[in-house]
Structure formats: C-alpha cells, structure tokens
Design brief:
The structure is a homodimer.
Chain A (H helix, E strand, L loop, with lengths): L9 H23 L5 H11 L6 H14 L4 H22 L8 E2 L2 E2 L1 H4 L2 H22 L3 H15 L4 H11 L6 H26 L4 H28 L2 H4 L5 H4 L5 H5 L1 H17 L9 H11 L4
Antiparallel strand pairs in A: 1-2
Helix pairs in contact in A: 1-3, 1-4, 2-6, 3-4, 3-9, 3-15, 4-6, 4-9, 6-7, 7-9, 8-9, 9-10, 10-14, 10-15, 14-15
C-alpha cells in the first residue's frame, strides 16, 4: 500500500476525505430541516457523530466514480441516506430488548446516553428521514425512485430486518452454515449491495456495470461481516470501540464458532478476490474499490 | 344520515368497502414479497389485521375520487402504505419504554403477543416496507417520489415522531394549549394531511385541489385527535378496544384536561365545519369526505 509523507496510505486519506464529505452532507441535511423536534435532533446528531469510518458511504461514492469518473451531488445525498439507515439499525440493535449493548463507536449507546424511548424514536427518525431526503433532494425522479427502492428493499423485512430477526433467534439454538449465510447476507451484505448499486445509479451506470458493482458490494459486505466475527473473537473492546467477545458470550451464530477461525479467514480471502474480480471491466477509476477489498483482509477494528 | 335496508348508513357501507379494498391490497403486497422473514411476517400480519376502520386510507381513496372521479391502483397502493406507517407507529407507541400499553384494537399489543424485540423489528419492517412498495409499485416515478415525500415528511422527525417525543415529555409537566396543538398537529394531523395530499396526487390534482384537500386532511386530523382525547375521558375500554382513561392516568396533555370538555367539543365542531368548507370547489364526488367530517362529531369509538 503506497503511503504519503505523513505515513498514511492514499487509501486512508481518501477514506478520511470521503468521511468529511458525508459528514458535511449529513449536517447540512439535518440543519436544513428546521422543524425537527430538538430532543430528537440531539439524539440523531449524537448517534450520527463518532469515529465510524463510513465504509458503506465511501463504497457508494467510489462506485459512482467508477462509473462516471466523478462524485456528484446525488451520490453525496445517497451516501448520507445510507449512513442514516445504518445508524438507525445500530441504535435499535443496541436496545435492551435486542442486543442490549452499552457501548457503540467508543461512547455510550443512544439509550444509555438518553433513554429507551428517545433511542426508539431517534432510530425511527433516522430511517424515515433517509427516505425524506432521497425523495426531496435527488434531482431526477427516476433516480430517486430507484435509490429509494434499493435502500428500502435492503433495509426491510426481506433484508436487514430479516437478518436481525434470524440473528436474535439464533442465540437459542445451534447454528449451521446455511443459517449463518442467511443472517450475514441479510443483516449486513444486502446493505453493502444497496450502497454499491446506489452509487452505480448515481453515476448513471448501464445494466452490466450496475450488476457488477452490486455483486462487488454483496461480496464485500459478507467479507466485512466475517472479519467482524473474527475480530469479536480476537480483539479487545478498546480496539473495537464496542464490547468485544459479545457474540461468543451471547452464544451467537458466527463464522469462527461454526466453521473455525482458519476456515473463516480463508473465506474472507476468497470473497475479497471474488469482489475484485467483479471490477474487471473498470480501470484506474475503481482503484479504491479494489483497495477496499484488500484492506478488509488486514482489518484490525 | 341515509340508511339502507340492513340499517347501515351509506357511509358505513362505503367505509367497510374501502377497508376491504385496503386489506386486500395489504395482503397482496405482503404475499408478493416472498423473502420476508417468517417471524417478522407473522408479526406484521398480526398487527395489520384487526377491527381498525382504516380512516386514513379511506380519506386517501376519497380524495383521489374527489379529484378524478375514480379510485385508481396507485391510490390503493398509497392507502396500504399509509396504513403500514400508521400501524408501525402504534406498535412502537405501545412499547414498554413508550406508552406501555397491553391492548390495541381489542387484542394484545405486538410486544405482548410476541416479545419486545419482535415488536421493535415489526414496526421497523412496516415503516420500511411502506417505502419499498411505493418505490416499486407506483406506475409513474414523479408520483412515486411525491407520495414518498409526503409520507416521509409527515411520519418523520419534523412530523409524527416530533409529536410523539413532545407527547412523551409532556407527561412530566403541565401542558398549555400551544404545546397541545404542537403535539396533536405533529403526532396525528400531519399524517391525515399526508393521506389527503397523497389521494390528491394519485388523482392527478391541480395545485389548488391539492392544497384544499391537504388543509381538509389537517383539520380532520385535529378533529379526530381531539375526539380521541374526549373519548378517553368518556368511554369504557370495551368500547375503545384499548385501555380507556389512560391519558388522564398518565397525566398527559389532552384537550379536555387543558381547556375542558365542553370547549373541546366546541373546537371539534368548528374544525369539522372548517374541513367541510375546504371542499367547496368539489361537488357530489366529495360526499363521503363531507360525511367523514360529520361522523367525527358523532364518534363513539
């Protein structure tokens, strides 16, 4: 990985720049909706801020650039919407009735900082507001509808919510690989797929580009979730910014638990390569998408 | 009110017919999304079914007819989406951390029937699925975007969620009329406004029709919520199908508590008349919209 004079790789600098772009858009979208109730606004801002790397948003922006050579305004709005939906899912997932977690992104979870009612409503607010901004801000109705469709399908009861439900229920029974793939595909990978597909839509991709990038996103999402499972076994809470060892403690179905650590690492390598293979028709403009796949092999948190 | 041979008014028959139309559409939309996780599907169906009158949906269908003379497929889909969002709001509102209610529509609330995690996820699922069906099923992208925008803005942090947050916090302090209007407008009336506006959009309304019907919806929504407050004081749980006297018990800000029962009834009459006045430019095709306003004056549950 090439590094610059300050010792950061180009990839890290690019990722940090994209985070700034998305954070600025999130702040602008919140600030411009003047009628948001102040307590809800405070909880929305609290949970959106933090040290998160905005991987899903970055992937969306890079997919737009891979197709069109540039990162346009629609892509920035769509990236903000994806991060709102991702953040909503974390808030609700952390609730006492769900995963019951006290730490997230290195600080108290929303229901710990405020209270449960505020956390439920702040999650609902972020989910709804994501669709509000996509419907109001995207400069072309056909693109807006396509973006909303991708996001809603990935986040809905045949996507992320299906994965969360299966994940919660998996705590009480012995998992197998089929269940594991169902959970990871639905809970995580479909949102990565949606982020990539949304970037393709913003870049005005043709059908073939749209499909390749969607497949790339799906593979990266699975890869990301399996490394998450691995890190839960191998890292400290301090490194992760959330409670480590939690999955094992909750007797959750994870890749290391079901197929072992070494085999899990092998699958991560295979998926990263498959993701890179999906980018064959793209040139230099897909460099960061390729690097993202490589980075996941070396993920520390 | 004219009654037919079976002793039911034309209005009641029309309302029951519209409920059948919307229930059939809800069932079709759920059945056609084959990938919904089975436990989530069960909770979605459980909460969507029940003796609810589907007032918001009926208003949407009638507004479409007032403008276009007919109830088209887009209006049926939009009406189903509105009922999904309304039902989600009830599920989350009933949660222990929120209003903590055990009965809804005459049966156990979602978290009582299943568990809290399922109720949180089923609510999330209905909210997300509403946007999924609007993005996928409406046959014209500009109309789809407009419908999604209306629904998201009304349900979001500058609408229903703002009202719920203010309502929850109002339990702990003395309310005044300004706060009361803020809560009722945001928590209830904006969704009625959205339903009416969405009906107008489905009927391809001109700007003036769209605005009149939106105002009609807003007035009806306020009228509906104040009668709800009045019924909470004056009816039994059996009549309501939910716990009666709950608002008073929770020391909530309600119209009867803040301005008294008689003055509340007077405001209901004024709002109903104002709603009817908004329909002046419509003829016979708006008959049920006018009757709805009259019915609210005589609401028993």
């Amino acid at each position: 990985m090439p590094t610059n004079q300050a010792g950061h790789s180009d990839f890290d600098v690019e990722l940090a720049n994209n985070k700034k772009v998305v954070d600025a858009m999130l702040e602008r979208l919140l600030a411009e909706q003047k009628q948001i109730e102040p307590n809800i606004m405070q909880a929305m801002r609290y949970t959106l801020e933090g040290p998160g790397k905005r991987i899903r948003a970055a992937m969306l922006l890079w997919c737009c650039r891979a197709v069109s050579g540039t990162i346009n305004e629609n892509a920035k709005i769509a990236a903000a919407a994806v991060e709102m939906v991702h953040t909503y899912s974390l808030i609700h997932d952390d609730l006492p009735a769900m995963d019951n977690d006290d730490m997230r992104r290195g600080k108290p979870t929303c229901h710990k900082k405020f209270d449960e009612a505020t956390a439920i409503l702040a999650g609902d607010a972020l989910l709804t507001f994501a669709f509000e901004v996509l419907s109001e801000r995207i400069n072309n109705p056909a693109a807006a509808v396509a973006l909303i469709g991708e996001l809603a399908a990935a986040a809905g009861p045949a996507g992320m919510i299906a994965g969360q439900m299966a994940d919660l229920r998996s705590q009480k029974k012995k998992g197998n690989r089929e269940l594991l793939e169902y959970i990871h595909t639905n809970k995580t990978a479909k949102m990565f797929h949606a982020a990539a597909a949304m970037g393709a839509i913003c870049g005005d991709a043709d059908r073939r580009q749209y499909e390749s990038l969607g497949e790339y996103g799906l593979k990266i999402g699975l890869c990301f979730q399996i490394t998450d499972d691995i890190l839960d076994v191998c890292s400290s809470s301090e490194q992760l910014g959330k409670t480590a060892g939690k999955d094992t403690k909750a007797d959750k179905v994870t890749y290391p638990a079901v197929i072992g650590l070494e085999k899990s690492r092998e699958i991560v390598r295979e998926l990263a390569q498959q993701a890179i293979d999906e980018l064959q028709s793209f040139g230099q403009e897909a460099v960061f998408l390729r690097q993202l796949a490589m980075e996941l092999l070396d993920r520390k948190k």
